[in-house]
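Researcher: Please generate the 3D structure of the following complex. Treat every line as part of one assembly.
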Amino acid sequence: MSDLLVSAPADRRSVLRLLRPSLVQLTLVRFREFWREPEAVFWVFVFPILLAAGLGIAFESRPAERLRIAAADGALAEMLAAEPSLAVEVMTPAAAEQALRRGRILLYATADGAGRLRLRYDDGIAEARTAHLLAARAAQRAAGAPEPVAVAEEAVREPGSRYIDFLIPGLLGLNLMGSGMWGIGFAIVDARRKKLLKRLLASPMSRTEYLLSFLLSRLVLLLVEVFALLGFGAWVFGVPVRGALWELLLVCVLASLAFTSLGLLIASRARTIEAASGLMNFVMLPMWVFSGVFFSSERFPDAMQPLIRLLPLTAVNEALRRNILEGAPLASLGPQTAIIGAWLVISFLTALRLFRWR
Amino acid sequence: MAAPAGQPSLRVRSLRKAYRDVIAVDGVDLEVWSGECFGLLGPNGAGKTTTIEICEGLLEPDSGTVELFGLTWARHGAELRQRLGVQLQDTQLSEKLTVGETVRLFRSFYRRGPSVEEVIRMVQLEEKRKARVGALSGGQKQRLAMACALVGDPDLLFLDEPTTGLDPQARRQLWELIGRLKREGRTVILTTHYMEEAERLCDRVAIIDRGRIIALGAPGELIGLLGAGHVVEFAVDSGREAPPPAVLEAIEGVVAVRALDSSYQLQVSELHRAVPALLAEFGRRGLAVTELRTHSASLEDVFVALTGRHLRDE
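Model: Done. Output below.
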């Protein structure tokens, strides 16, 4: 290997000389196969940005929307409409029942003979509970109830606490998972199916370099992915990156290596694309749901939390959010990096044991 | 051809390999000498590919030994990889790469060898250098596979069914290429189930059937063993009795008689005497001949003579 280190310091390509030509060629092949597959480029680069744009617009923070409710008569409606957050209309009980079922209104207010206000709503819906509180408050105020405590309100709608701020790190994690696992998994299973792996094995190619070429190309594409998504978030939605950038990249590299190892594990035996796709989806779909990509994973029951926290994507998303949104230093992300690292080591070692070249 | 002196390029001793309940290779011995083009000829499933893949170090034999240039896979794997050129049966190279990129990739694995341009010229794909592999014809893909086998300037070239599935023109092009490699003095081992290919390209062939070598020698020698230079095949009207074998054997110039499924095959030394006598015999018996074919004896006939089956039962 000593000859690899011989290079003229003035030579601008001296860095490349440290790499063996075979490793360079194998890595170039990875890039070429990627760029020449328009679908892969779409899923890795375009899709996450489209998703971020779509969800960002859909859940854009607006002045709090008025909650739609209905009242049985005009007087009642007028009383409730004193509350600016409520949009009140008049409905017959039958129409209101239907509107409630369809979610068109959140609450139906009637007054019974005894001067009591009846509020019908589904207490399983958070917004309906809010409507109930507002309606009740409006009724008390109309009756001249005293308010012993003065409440000053302060609306928080600044970058870093909106849905898009929650979403962008989650999409980054999702993207690291998808591209890491598919990138290596698909290529290896395809090469095995076409007997290309066997052909490469019949040449003097180094098997280590072959696997290394996947990691090298992944790391380069990773930079593009991270900067494209975060850049888009910052440019269009003003999503901040509060943590140290190099620490963020380190987390991304670790995450990418872990998911690539997991992809290698899945691809270690599969002989058909169908089998590999099935396995990939089996592994990835639960993480789409449980790992806090689109909504917080803490919404799931407490009993599931220990399991959910052990999923690699949960740890990755948590670490990304802590860095990006809270500016947490890497040193404080010990548990998350430990979980990601464990997935990396265990999947890689298992993959090496199981891997079939033929 | 190189005289059997010194060390053979390939020496195989009592090779055996079974897959579950099928014995693929059942005691094969082989020696291939430097500069020789050696053919493994046999029907599909005869054990040719298993044999050649064990020689290429891709499969482990159950027992037996393989030596290449006096080296073994267990101890000299890395060196052997550098010295061998391999073309496997139905490998699909990456369709997204160009011809040039594919050759460059394979070239990068070898310490020595011709330049990418030279190799592409050797297989006559200069015009396709920038074409994607996916856009090549079957014959061009096969020549590209040959290029990938040649990038390391191999001392020994393994070609597994190099022309299977190609149209006649592409097959002839590949024969010319292999012929050129032979003339350059390269050692080539190829498998085929086309006897014409073996006769045309190979200095020596091993006819292999059910995992065993049933004949070994130069194509001419093997055909000579038949003792008859020609083959006459005929069939009579179904439902009618052909003349009994004893009668056929008595015809002048007939060396051997063999009844196949629906026809008869005569090995004949003197065609110009045997055919008129045969037709006269049919005339005497009032038999109508529905088929009558003659051809010069080939390796196919050797295979038929040895096994009673055609090489390709299709």
